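User: Structure please.
Assistant: Input sequence and predicted structure:
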Amino acid sequence: MAREEATLQISGMTCTACAASVEKGISKIDGVEEANVNFALERTTVVYDSNKTNVDKFKRKVENLGYHVVQQKADFDISGMTCAACATKIEKRISKMDGVSSANVNFALESIIVEYDDKQVQSTDMITAVKKMGYELIPKLSSGDKMDHKELEIKKQTRLFIFSSLLSLPLLWTMVAHFNFLSFIYLPDFLMNPWVQFALATPVQFIVGAQFYKGAYTSLRNKSANMDVLVAIGTSAAYFYSIYLAIEWVQAGRIGAPDLYFEAAAIIITLIVLGKLFEVRAKGKTSQAIQKLLGLQAKTARVMRDGQE
């Protein structure tokens, strides 16, 4: 038997008879050992066997009796999501936390709304749980502040793309110049030096690509795999195999030119960063458009019942 205790805040009780009704109703649920309602505090404490019942059943019972379970609501922005699968993982993780009755992630707006019992879980617990997954929950900001957050991400990815492009272009040059139909392109000899290519590729691999290694680590730690894992494995294979070939070339007496793949790793990272930049910009515009649509929503309504307004 898994003995647990839950506390629910209840509204709508007007007298001790209401309290008795709630107490009696919850007590009848299979698996409930004890239910005590404090009318003055409008609170009920339930001791139950979690193998037989759960808090959701208590809430439904209270609602069926005509009362309401008061829930805290938290609204967060989410940072770090790259696809709908990320949104699903976050939603499932939060939903499974004790005291959380619902969690809804909006991938387009990069936000989540959580309804929870603050006696069982706190917003800081949610932030910590999501951070372990490699994402970040940010308490809801104003729309202006949220746009500032988007702008910062756009500027960050822009800087990384420019930096990566400057280092990758010489490597791209070495690759293009080897195509037979482009053999007329001049290629400086020093660019074919393995250590020059190593010097150009290393900052791209570990400075620009750091975000992919970090994402891959957190994903694997949570026993799942995402795009970051694919990028980290693919580019690392090309990068470290090229280092091996360069060392082998030196040991062989520096004869000829080794077949290196530094340009493959660097160019893949550069193109993916460009894709992330487009993605962040698109999300920013989508969020702005949705916020404007929400701003058009009616603030008041007139209800007609039996011909009376």
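The CA atoms of residues 31 and 52 lie 5 Å apart.
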